[in-house]
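Dear Dr. H.,

I hope your travels went smoothly. While you were away I took the liberty of generating a structure for the chain from your last submission, since the lab meeting agenda had it listed for discussion. I wanted you to have the full record in hand beforehand rather than looking at slides cold. The sequence, exactly as received, is reproduced here:
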Amino acid sequence: MGKKRELLVHEGIQSGQEVEFRDLWQSGSDAIPYRSAFKDVIFRQSWNAGVATPAGVSHFKFSQEDAIVVQFRICCPNIEKDTSICVIGSHAQLGQWKVPNGLKLNYCGESVWQADCAIQRSDFPIRYRYCKYDKAGNTSIENGPNREVSTNCSSSETKYIFLSDGMLREVPWRGAGVAIPMFSVRSESDLGVGEFLDLKLLVDWAVASGFHLVQLLPINDTSVHGMWWDSYPYSSLSVFALHPLYLRVQALSENIPDEIKQEIEKAKQHLDRKDVDYEATMATKLSIAKKVFALEKNLILNSSCFQKFFSENEDWLKPYAAFCFLRDFFETSDHSEWGRFSHFSKDKLEKLVSKESLHYDIICFHYYIQYHLHLQLSEAAKYARKMGVVLKGDLPIGVDKNSVDTWVYQNLFRMNTSTGAPPDYFDKNGQNWGFPTYNWEEMSKDNYAWWRARLTQMAKYFTAYRIDHILGFFRIWELPDHAMTGLVGKFRPSIPLGQEELESEGIWDFNRLIRPYIRLGQLQEKFGDSWTFVAATFLNEYEKQCFEFKENCNTEKKIAAKLKSFADGSLFESEDKIRRNLFDLIQNIVLIRDPEDARKFYPRFNLEDTSSFKDLDDHSKNILKRLYYDYYFHRQENLWRENALKTLPVLMNSSDMLTCGEDLGLIPSCVHPVMQELGLLGLRIQRMPSEPDLEFGIPSQYSYMTVCAPSCHDAATLRAWWEEDEDRRLRFCRSVMESDMLPPDRCTPEIAYFIIRQHFESPSMWAIFPLQDLLALKEEYATRPANEETINDPTNPKHYWRYRVHVTLESLLKDNEMTSIINNLVRGSGRSFPKKGLEGEVSLASGKQQNASAGEKTPLSSVSNGIQPKDALPVRS
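The corresponding predicted structure, in token form, is as follows:
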């Protein structure tokens, strides 16, 4: 991992003299301190260290047979102001373990410190350590056992040893953050929804609370349908364009007329509601923005600032503006209905966006909106970096089928398929997100340029990001376009069951296994007296008491459409109940035939639960059961590992953002080793443990390379989860809280404090908390019904994403008691605390003690300057 190495051989080394280069393997996690979240934000230095040119070694007498020059070289990305690095060790030139007399290193840039030291061959081996020190006498010596350098080679010609010693060994850095969707933020200035400029207030609150990170949900434009369905933030209209919903219209101009200001004030009062009114807010903002645009369009569009923005973004900005115009003109985002514009071409695009076109002002309005969104988000992002706060974005796994990207890059998508997830914690029937799957083979032809462009765009604003459903880069759950649920799918890529393989095992009746298994008894059980109506309407009896679906309703979408046609109320039961039962019937299969190769098959997920499987003979059951477990848990592992190692490094190398992955659900065994190899942080949610034998995760046992949280946007909040299940609450109390007392029905601040503290104290690199869970720490913020604070219901594909925090950021900033509670949790858990007002500067530990023997000031956490050789130092795990 990491950048290429560079070895500078000095002029003093003569021909024929040997050079030894001793280096350490660099793993994925070693590169993390050089990601922008740390390099440019948390470890960002407010001082400019002078870069010293490494001294030449010609002054050393190489002619002396017993003289060896050792170059000590160490990386220290987390260095404090006015602090330097030295080497102390067992040799006189290394200070005999005394810091004041140690070998002082020179800063060489890129967090590297180095210096040369001539040592007699007879003095080897040399034991040593690296140490931080400052002008005030504060010192901090690295952890772990002593390092050692020896000359055990047979040749006496070695005159120079390069020691590339990797990283300074310190206590692993740990931080904390807050997570909240952009639309959920509430401030005194917003217009019915959180806005990009509100992030500055959120950053202020984060710093006051002790947080180094603010995490958002996706902020891309999702305006596909022109209604509240577009509140779903993971269905991107464009993976490059920002959402107009988050625009602050008051900031569009310094010269907004009074009548427009009055309109804004009225809109603020009208839209200041408990939840987001997506449609009204979008309509209001666009209406006001059009009026301001009409007044200043020439001034803005001709400005050098706009021209720079346009030239840097026109590759995606032109298609986006054209798409928005065509969407509104044809009143649909379904580009297959756009006539001659259905198929994208650059010639057609240039005509659409040309200055001579009648609709040029409409095109420019979309440019104008994106320009101001860019300015406002950039202002907030710059402020976050200045305050030492990481802004973490979210990379959705899919794009909407009717999007700019599928219009422009149709060859990159499998448009006749849909993505989703197999049954899991969230939904026993699986999930169908409706996005087309990716054509990875086509994407690889230009080295995944579309993905690289996405990450480059994100990096303009964010210093960290979360990969939504990272499993999709190993394999995706692919569903046919006619499916509505997520149950009857297959993994792509995967190694199917071949017909020859099945036949060799004695499985031959494929029509029986792939056809929905429908018998008279099932119909009577599911539909009761109305079974005859259902059978006559939806089914054919192809054998006595054996049924199959009619051609016009033999898919889930056809069934739903058929049911919608009964507007006259002729259904004996509710439409939803009949649909669920009919879906159960059509999903009652054992094998799925590959639509592209009739001789390949895939085992249906949870096939043992079907009556189709249960009615098979024992031999067939045993064979299919074995093949099922092989397909889902064994035979794909190498394929999926190779697939991820092709795609994920491309994403990670496209920017220097810190990368995290959402690895919840059915996790193949290859996933975590690959994430560890690449230095990808995983996600740990206590109620969704990755260990199959646990009901609740144990935060104290999480690994360092993780992000832990008590809940997430796809699950109930901490309060709602606690209050919805009495038996589970009792089990949690006994197994996690180790108490036999009857737990309270409500999630009291004391309960919330216990659970949140568990996560703060975990070994995870990051503990990130939904804002709703943090508000549960104080009684006055827990007045809203808990179930109203849930952001998403994954079981509902048409969920309205509209939750708004019921308290403004300004009020939270004034609540010193609340910030004090969180402050104490951060400090008490040993997590890093941002220095308010120091613009991300990290200072030395404040605790000092007087060393009686050496008379030097030393942090309480460090060891004495009178260090003894060998293993005299305590080893901290």
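Two observations you may find useful: Residues 18-172+854-859 form a domain with the Immunoglobulin-like fold (CATH 2.60.40.10). Residues 54-63, 837-877 have pLDDT under 50 and may be disordered.

With kind regards,
E. W.
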